[in-house]
Amino acid sequence: MLRRLGLCTVRAGDAQSGALFPFKLEFNPPAHGVWNIVHVGMLVPEAHQIYVCAINCMRGVVLTAAEMGLSERFSCVVLKEEDIIRGTVEEVTLTGIVDVLRKLEAHGGLPPCVMVFPVCTHHFLGVNMSRVYDELERQFPTVDFVRAFMDPIMKRRRSPDMWLRKVMFDPLPKVDASEDVVACLGSDFALDADCELRDVLSAANYGMAEIQQCATYEEYKQLAHAAAFISTYPNARYGIDKLASRLGRRHMYVPSTFSYDEIRGQYLRLHEVLGTPMPDFKSEIARCEGALESLRARLQDAPIAIDSAAHPRPLGLARLLLEHGLRVTEVYLDAANPEEECELAWLGKHAANVELCSIVLPQMRVASRERDEEVLAVGQKAAWFTGTSRFVNLVEGGGLWGFAGIRGIASLMEEAWSHKKDAHDLIPRKGLGCESCF
Predict the structure, then answer these.
(1) Residue 200 C-beta-side C-alpha neighbours within 13 Å
(2) What is the β-pairing status of strands 74-78 and 327-332?
(3) CB contact at 8 A, 204 and 274
(4) What digits encode the pLDDT tens for the residues 259-272?
(5) Given a cut of 50, is residue 16 above it in pLDDT?
(6) Residue 69 scores a pLDDT above 80
(7) What CA–CA distance (Å, rounded) separates 54 from 46?
(8) pLDDT band for position 174 (cuts 50, 70, 90)
(9) pLDDT for the residue numbered 25
(10) Residue 156 has what pLDDT?
(11) Residue 54 CB neighbour total at 10 angstroms
């Protein structure tokens, strides 16, 4: 089992809701499959990203664009110390962006959409970004400017990731709604092809639109015609709420969950709002039970580790597996998702010895990665911390949802136990599922 190092682990029976560990200097384990804001912004087809920051901050975002093979959709304006001393950051920001756009205009034409990413420095110095955007819109009236931000050290209620998932849909215009399309937005991954939600919507004569289907900027703007919006990823809820409110549409937040009762409730809500049929829950649940029993028989008593980067509901997954006779030994997360308070309480009562382990506390850098038994990990970070090559290579839910999502995760776990992966090759790769030239 994991060696205890200070306050890096806590028994589920002793855990409290909210933050499980103190916020201190952070360690970044070398598992990089989750998407960053460059990856997310690239979902908007033909959009060009411009970052305005110091060279040290620029390194990571430049590399991300290069690794995706999309450097032609990425530019930067470098801020220097002398700009701060002279008080010229605002002018450098404006003139730098204008210079980038003039060069793009001369070499192929202006992009239809430009995402501008100021940084923490712009906050600290009180830069008037409204003036910058007003001037950009005056000089380039054909371009849609997206007001993004890369300010991860600012204490705000919404992270840069959450903010981007709002502003990336700001260019969608106010247009009439189509009565036969529902848009599922805000997630990095399209819903899995086997997700029964697609069939349920189809039975009610609705098509499903997703940004991942859009090849051009014009196709992206057609998302505005959706009769209603669905979001499944927690970080997207705020943004899609704002989009639906602006366009005067309904928004249904139906997060991916491992609770049969919660899935029933989500389908009931969809039925009440959209008139969709209710699935045959007995049939769907029976198929889930069969998949979980197959997994239990295959794993026997093998230890299972789960991390919060693999799925937004790691405690819910732990509960589901424990309830079906599987042996979850540890869950890697630094704070309990408010949506999982019931799962945390259940673990505290029924599985008190499950270890809840920090991901980012510095002591985790020297935590032992050796185990007496081979571990099945769900997620790259759990795989790294446990030193296993049997792991589910999954980030951010991977598009799994509903009853099909439960069967999908069981199938992925069974496959991972049967076939080892090259962890040294896979885990360090950035942006799982993104196109990469490496």
Answers:
(1) 23
(2) unpaired
(3) yes
(4) 999 999 999 999 99
(5) yes
(6) yes
(7) 25
(8) very high
(9) 83
(10) 66
(11) 16
> What's the rounded mean pLDDT across residues 221-234?
97
**Which one, of 185, 171, 200, lies nearest residue 403 by Cα?**
200
Domain 45-167 fold: Rossmann fold (3.40.50)
Distance separating alpha carbons of residues 250 and 159, to the nearest angstrom: 24
With cut-offs at 50, 70 and 90, classify the pLDDT of residue 378: very high
Which among 35, 32, 115 has a CA at the least distance from the CA of 73? Answer: 115
Q: What residues pair up with 6 in beta bridges, in sequence order? A: none
Phi, psi of 72 (to 5 degrees): -70, -10
pLDDT digits (tens, 9 = 90+) for 338-347: 999 999 999 9
User: Which of 136, 140, 135, 151 is closest to 53 using CA atoms?
Assistant: 151
Smallest CA-to-CA distance from 209 within 192, 229, 189, 193 is with 229
Does 419 or 159 have the greater pLDDT score?
A: 419
Rounded to an integer, what distance in angstroms lies between the CA atom of residue 425 and that of residue 370? 19
CATH of domain 181-274: 3.40.50.1980
> If you write DSSP's letter for every residue of 72-90 in order, what string do you get?
GGEEEEE--HHHHHHT-HH
- The backbone torsions φ and ψ at residue 391, rounded to the nearest 5 degrees and listed phi first, read -150, 155
Q: What percent of the chain has pLDDT over 90?
A: 86
From 203, 209, 313, 326, select the one nearest 263 (Cα to Cα). Answer: 313
Packing angle, helices 237-247 and 160-167, rounded to 10: 20
CA separation for the pair 81, 32 (Å, rounded): 30
SS3 27: coil
What sign for the dihedral angle of Cα 111, 182, 405, 270?
positive
Q: What is the pLDDT of residue 434?
A: 87
Output the six-digit token pair for 280. 């045959």
The C-alpha atoms of residue 254 and residue 268 are separated, in whole angstroms, by 11
The answer to whether 68 and 437 are in contact (CB under 8 A) is: yes
